Amino acid sequence: MASSPKDLHFVLFPLMQQGHMIPMIDIARILAHRNATVTIITTPVNATRFKPAIDRAIQAKLKIQVIELQLALAEVGLPEGCENFDMIPSVDLFVNMYAAMDKLEKPSEEVLRQLTPAPSCIISDNQFPWTTDLAHRFGIPRLVFHGPGCFTYLCLHIVVNTNVLSEIRSDLDYFVLPGIPDRIELTKAQAGGWGKIREMEGMEDFFERMSMAEEGADGVVVNSFEELEPNYVKRLAEAKGKKVWCIGPVSLHSRSFLDMAERGKKAGIDGHDCLKWLDTKDPRSVIFVCLGSMSSLSNEQVLELGLGLELSSIPFIWCIRSTTDETDIWLSGYEERVKDRGLIVRGWAPQVLILSHEAVGGFVSHCGWNSTLEGVAAGVPMVTYPQFADQFLNERLVVDVLKTGVSIGMEVPVAIGEKDKFGALVKKENIKTAVESVMNDGGEGKARRERAREFGEMATKAMAEGGSSYVNTTLMMQDVIEELAKNTKPIQDVF
Ligand code: UDP
């Protein structure tokens, strides 16, 4: 019988996508740090991505292990090694990935049967709906991890569970989202989130299963902190009819150089070189530009973004995830022109490390939830440049609720995963204006920066011992102990 955190064994199922996997690995380390045993179940390619972080945790004597399961890639028609959403060659194959993920249920059950100590709780991404039944078969709770914060989660809940969208005719007209404490205006296209994927064959059933499984889950774990969105934490718990534990920003759990420099993937620049470059700049003078792990810009937009940064007089670090022959040629001349104040990172940036440096004073972000929260945690104002999925909702939180951001003016979402459909161009003049406005230290810019700084301080306090997120982690663990105590059936009798 579990009576303290050290008796608990959490089994984590992270979705194979950077924006879901990175915070789950942080959650694993937070739980292990609180003396629980943690098993992460994932696939070999994904395990390799976070191996350095897990190895460091094991060296620090945390009770963490990773168990690798093979996806049935050939069976569902996916290429060998295609184990992460950022590797899927075409959006039409997303549904094949979900089919492969479904096939992990049986092997996962085998793994759980053999775990010692026996599992006591599953924390799984909402995109593994079968984990609710799996947990019930073992007589243990399943907690859902969904990705976004409470504001966005609640907005999505309203969009999915009411007919608010069906009453709106045009995709592009703005309407006020009902049922939330703030006045939020957005378009149907911005609220829709999943675009084409939702309409694909088989996905309707998947979404239905996901929502049923969420209903059957025992609680919700959110990477956020109560002070950031207090009204929404409460409303979300009411809407879902379950406990919501905000336990973040999880990126603040470890501030060691390596943990910040090696998050998610090997970076395209040495972390020390990055810090050395930043050391030469004035406090809060640099803007960091990074658009996450999934979005891709057209060649024309890459050039326009670069020209917008060049037009402003602000020093910058710009992470370009993927380049083409055309952008490479253009970049070689560009880099030379901006070399005194611009640093270009190709591929993966050590984002959290960069944001932690005092020279960084602003962040141009695509508003993926992790990046949004990492910006909040760093205490910097943001230029919001959403692309798709929940990013437009996160933008509304930053711009309208927290009032710590300036929109770049992106209005029409890009088709998620459709690499050749980029939507309307954001012009260099708009980019320059938004960047300068966020970096401006006078008037509204000053007030925005002050608010951002205060949220950053609150985030740090929330994660410190005794802070709201620390306490919520304790409460979540206690809840698991209580749930287990209610279930008196020995596991072997469950089968
Ligand atoms: N990230 C990073 N370097 C990059 C791009 C992304 O470290 O060059 C990290 C970022 O810090 C965040 C995650 O990857 O933790 C991206 O998650 P987010 O929810 O912001 O966006 P997504 O990639 O899912 O769209």
From TrEMBL:
Q: Report the EC code(s) recorded for this entry.
A: 2.4.1.-
**Does the record's keyword annotation contain Acyltransferase?**
no
Q: Which GO terms describe its molecular function?
A: UDP-glucosyltransferase activity
Question: Glycosyltransferase: is it a keyword of this entry?
Answer: yes
InterPro entries attached here? UDP_glucos_trans, UDP_glycos_trans_CS
Q: Where are the transmembrane segments?
A: none
Out of the domains of life, which is the source?
A: Eukaryota
Q: Which UniProt keywords apply?
A: Glycosyltransferase, Transferase
The family assignment reads:
Belongs to the UDP-glycosyltransferase family.
**Record-given protein name:** Glycosyltransferase
Q: What is the lineage of its organism?
A: Eukaryota, Viridiplantae, Streptophyta, Embryophyta, Tracheophyta
